[in-house]
Design a protein that fits this description.
Layout (H helix, E strand, L loop, with lengths): L5 E5 L3 H13 L3 E5 L2 H10 L4 E4 L8 H9 L6 E5 L4 H9 L4 E4 L4 H15 L9 E3 L3 E4 L4 E4 L2 E3 L3 H12 L5 E2 H9 L5 H15 L9 E4 L3 E4 L3
Parallel strand pairs: 1-2, 1-3, 3-4, 4-5
Antiparallel strand pairs: 6-7, 7-8, 8-9, 10-12, 11-12
Helix pairs in contact: 1-5, 4-8
């Protein structure tokens, strides 16, 4: 099988870097590695990267700050890999634009599986000729993967886009927390994970995120899309 995706692994623990490199290369990924965020930033700017596995605590700038810099110009999938398992760290990582958060107790095989999952979600689907979901002030062009709200293009991460597409293709349908966790996170995570991603989506598509009109909460159950 030929190499098909480039993964950038950023961690100052060389043993973890080498272990992940072995497992990823065994699955035919091309792997680049960096021991700190400045080196990672330079590599990201110079070469195409399809996914980043990013530690948080490193010398100099931490992984959160690198994620913030990358999100300023790219929606490349970012998976945080950290020894820190507190909810506050997970929420911060997802809020900054991370697509997943993995605790380092996870096996290398699980990490590779999560990389594959986020790449599947971020892959552009086959174009659907002329497929536009039009709800007035909200439009979603599925063939171009574009979202326009009140005439302005909205930049979304791959997971944000797929979440929004699911809702937009099923207006007024209530998706439970459990359904969303299973579909987008393989059943791994909790309601905090979903709330953080939906909150981030609302910041981008709602006129007033504190009083959402598009993505609304169905108390105790999940969320639904109201359309324009």
């Amino acid at each position: 099988m030929s190499v098909y995706h480039t993964v950038l692994v950023v961690d100052d623990d060389q043993s973890i870097v080498e272990l992940l490199r072995d497992f990823l290369e065994n699955d035919n990924f091309h792997v680049m590695t960096a021991g700190d965020t400045e080196q990672a930033w330079d590599m990201f700017k110079q070469q195409p990267v399809h996914c980043i596995v990013l530690d948080i605590m490193m010398p100099g700038q931490n992984g959160f700050e690198l994620c913030r810099r990358i999100r300023g110009e790219s929606s490349v999938p970012i998976l945080f890999l950290s020894a820190r398992s507190h909810d506050v760290d997970k929420i911060r990582g997802l809020t900054l634009g991370g697509d997943d958060y993995i605790v380092k107790t996870a096996s290398p095989g699980e990490i590779v599986a999560r990389v594959k999952a986020v790449l599947r979600r971020s892959a552009s689907p086959q174009p659907v000729e002329g497929r536009v979901l039009d709800y007035g002030r909200f439009k979603m062009n599925l063939s171009a993967r574009e979202v326009v709200v009140e005439g302005k293009n909205v930049v979304l991460t791959p997971k944000e886009y797929e979440l929004l597409r699911l809702f937009a293709e099923h207006p007024r349908h209530v998706f439970s927390y459990e359904q969303l966790l299973e579909k987008f996170w393989g059943g791994v995570g909790d309601r905090h994970t979903i709330r953080v991603h939906l909150s981030r989506l609302r910041e981008k598509i709602e006129s007033d995120p504190n009083h959402p009109q598009l993505l609304v909460n169905v108390w105790g159950v999940g969320y639904r899309f109201e359309g324009g």
